[in-house]
Each structure stands twice: as C-alpha cells, then as structure tokens.
Amino acid sequence: MPAKCANSYIYCPEKEDYRTNIYSVGAKGTGDGGAFVTIEDIVKFWNGLIRHELLSEEMVTEMFSKQSGDGKDPEEGYYGYGVWIIDNPEGQDYVYMQGVDDGVSAISEYNPNNGMITVMLSNYGDNVWSRMRKIREEAYV
Fold first, then answer.
1. What was the pLDDT predicted at 31?
2. For residues 74 and 87, is the Cβ–Cβ distance under 8 A?
3. Which domains does the chain have, with CATH numbers?
C-alpha cells in the first residue's frame, strides 16, 4: 500500500463496529480493481479525455455514446465504452465511472452541460451513489 494511504473499512453488524478490509480484497491491483488513486488522478484522467489528450475526439464521442442498455433504470441508464451514461432530457447526457469492493466505493461523473467533474472516493464502502444523486439534484440545475 502506498505511503499515507487511508485504510478501508467494512462494517460488521455482529460486532456493531468496523474492521479493515485487508483480508477481503486482493493484495495487488488488477485490471478490474485494486488501484490506488487520488481525486486529482481521476480529475486528470477526465480532463485528458475531455481535452482529447488521451483519445481522439471521435473516440471520446464513441466512448460517451450509448452502446448497450435499455434505460429502464434511470440511474444505471446505458453503458458506453468504459462509462455509464444517464439520459438528460434537458441537455447532453451525464457520463460516469464507478467502482466498489469490500470497504471501498467510488463514483466520478462528468456533466458536459456545465463542465462539472465530481469525484467521490470512500474508504468505508459508503453509498457514494446516494450522494451523487444529491449533487445531481442540487448542482445540475
């Protein structure tokens, strides 16, 4: 684990307390998770996509467009290439990335209508999704 990295915690109902997730996740990051990132890392990644520094404009447009899903669940919406897409009848759709594992959860969203990038990382496995809904309700107006 990198220096100054926060421990992650899992709630144990039988003990009514938290314990670290050290024995619940892999010791080394893999393609599907386990990366150590900061908020700044994720914002830098979004900006690299948005400014077409990582991928061409055509590739980002394709990545951020609906590739699968039926939109029946308004929160999950659709899936692009590596990102989830939520319908926005008032403008451009919202694009987000998410992840969860024992004791950790993350969501990061780009709102192309106002240029807002939101990043939430939790080391308690908190419900970052409910907090993201609140941001959409209050900050996207």
1. 63
2. yes
3. 9-139 (3.40.710.10)
Residue type, 64: F
pTM, full prediction: 0.82
Average pLDDT, the chain: 85
- Beta strand 116-122 with 17-20: parallel, antiparallel or unpaired? unpaired
Outline where the chain has alpha helix (H). 39-50, 57-63, 128-139
Q: What are phi and psi of 35, to 5 degrees?
A: -75, 150
Within 10 Å of residue 86's Cβ, how many Cβ atoms?
19
Write out the two tokens for 111. Answer: 């709102």
* Per-residue pLDDT band at 50 (split at 50, 70, 90): very high
Determine the 3-state secondary structure of 72 from DSSP: coil
48: left (phi over 0), alpha (psi -120 to 50) or beta: alpha
